[in-house]
Amino acid sequence: MPLGPLAARFGCGTGAAHTFALLRAGALALAALTLVPSCGTPPQAEMPGTIETVVGTGEPGWLEGGYGGDAGDANQARLNAPGALAFAADGTLYIADTDNNRIRSVNPDSGTVNTVAGGGATDWARAECATAAALPDIAGLAVSSYGDTLYAASTLQNQVVAIDPHECTIELTAGRADGSAVQLSEHETGELDGLWWPKDVAVGPDGTLYIGDSGNDRVVAVGPHEARSSGRPDSEYVRVVAGNGAPGRSGATTPADTGIGDLGRLDVDGEGSVFFVDGSAGLRKVDSYKNTVTADWNPRLPEDPQAIAVNPRTGRLFATDTARNLVMAYAPGSREPTVVAGTGSRGFTGDGGPADEADLDSPGGLAVSPGGDLYIADTHNHRIRMVHDVDTALDDRTG
């Protein structure tokens, strides 16, 4: 294999393009790494546990000049209260640019940002392209295992839509076409066309799409895609994996159809286990083989975390403590948190230094990159920030 492309990806440059080139390289085969010449000791800003801004200027999109930055370097783009984050397997980062009503992407090779959906005023069903569609209040993002479909949950529209970022298409996956909320009665849980305030989405390793239908206190699974060429899950195969459409309180181990007190965020680990936040009972795990919901691992979560993310390789859980401007980490099986990022003070400081000495302002989104870096939507700083090699840093700190 020629050295040129790999050397460029692992070069000693700086900036968003270099950062996202490193991100993409993290997904390459380890054998390829031996072909890359050493650049010496990495700068402080790239040491494990350090934090830097990778997307956004910090100037919100509603200032004079408005939304902008498409086709340019990601750290020169304007975001407006970014929230949900998701990665494709190739390292493409997707951002819910919430108050701009758009979904932005960052190319892992060039570090450039573009809009892939939203920003228009047309109902998605009539939009000729996803970028002409109106997408208010995107609360959750997930990418299919094939990488060709981006799922977005809109709480205000009570819908989950499927977007093809390459073909600019958008179509309904779940919810009513008119956006009306559907409150289901107890045990009336198998109707995918009825959603009420969907708060999050996640995709499992087998391509199954999970929807956190929070208003109906249930987690719905669609799929899996099995051996089909498309990344879209089979909408004919719908099942409820947790909840029964009515509020309740689960115990340590309860049947999967026990009521959920207040369904929050969800994610899927590398083995396909679904974790969700039950506001009345903490973190819960779905055991699909036993058809139960368990609390075998019940960490001390922050109150109402706005995002959770499970590293699919290590099983470590990350959660935002938005009210205290912190991001917490939990080793598998551990109840006690470790601060990953933030000091507890609201502000913007610390780029280039340890993440736990940096100030954040209302962190509202999390995602772990294919290369093992933690990405944080620093919502009211209107930036996306990255903690380098987060698991290595935490392992070194905790011994």
TrEMBL record:
Q: Where is this region: Disordered?
A: 338-358
Pfam families, sorted: NHL (PF01436), TEN_NHL (PF25021)
- InterPro entries named among the record's database cross-references: 6-blade_b-propeller_TolB-like, NHL_repeat, TEN_NHL
Q: Where does the secretion signal sit in this chain?
A: 1-31
Which parts of the sequence belong to the Teneurin NHL domain? 67-106
Which keywords has UniProt assigned to this entry?
Repeat, Signal
SUPFAM superfamilies assigned to the protein according to its UniProt record, in alphabetical order: 3-carboxy-cis,cis-mucoante lactonizing enzyme
- Composition-biased stretches, type Gly residues, lie in 344-353
- The name on file for this protein is Sugar lactone lactonase YvrE
Source organism per UniProt: Streptomonospora salina
